[in-house]
Design goal:
- The protein has a domain at 29-126: Jelly Rolls (Sandwich), CATH 2.60.120.10.
- 2% of the residues lie in helices and 41% in strands.
- It contains one helix and twelve strands, in the order E-H-E-E-E-E-E-E-E-E-E-E-E.
Length: 172
């Protein structure tokens, strides 16, 4: 049986796996260590992770979800959350709701403090998902699907720029 209780102090934080972390100029602004919690607890419809940001860093680009909802609970430190066109100071004890929607619901957490910022992120895990990135005019479509006939997980991920697409019948 999967254990159902895990103390946050026992969550092991990891850097992104090779090939998934920021590169080039983005590496100057983005850096996070994360600990995935939901698989350890057997969660099925919610994803949970612990995120730690060094001072001056962000975990992800400014983005909105069209399908899934996120919630963040600030455990330690202080920073700023950008939601739509507004910026709000955040500190330990704050709860941040990020429902699905368009650019008005886009969000990003930044560590503006002098110490590490840690927060618990909780989200629904409906697949497929569509994310938009208003600052860079990009979108992402991602899906996680059950295992194939050989038991290997199946997934799909496409990142593109708005306005750059091919016609439905191109190449047919």
């Amino acid at each position: 049986m999967t254990r159902r209780i895990l103390n946050i102090a026992d969550v092991e934080l990891q850097p992104p796996p090779p090939g998934y972390g920021p590169t080039g100029p983005a590496a100057e602004r983005f850096e996070a260590r994360m600990g995935r919690i939901s698989p350890q607890l057997g969660a099925q419809k919610l994803g949970y992770n612990l995120t730690a940001l060094p001072p001056g860093k962000r975990a992800f680009p400014f983005h909105n979800h069209r399908v899934n909802e996120e919630m963040f609970f600030v455990l330690e430190g202080q920073g700023e959350v950008r939601i739509g066109e507004a910026r709000h100071p955040i500190r330990a004890g704050d709860i941040i709701a990020c429902p699905p929607g368009g650019p008005e619901s886009a969000h990003q957490i930044v560590n503006t403090g002098e110490a590490e910022l840690r927060y618990l992120a909780v989200s629904t895990t409906v697949s497929p998902e569509i994310c938009e990135y208003p600052d860079s005019n990009k979108y992402a479509v991602a899906g996680e699907f059950g295992p194939d006939a050989d038991g290997k997980p199946q997934s799909f991920r496409m990142v593109g720029r708005n306005g750059e697409s091919v016609g439905y019948w191109d190449g047919e």
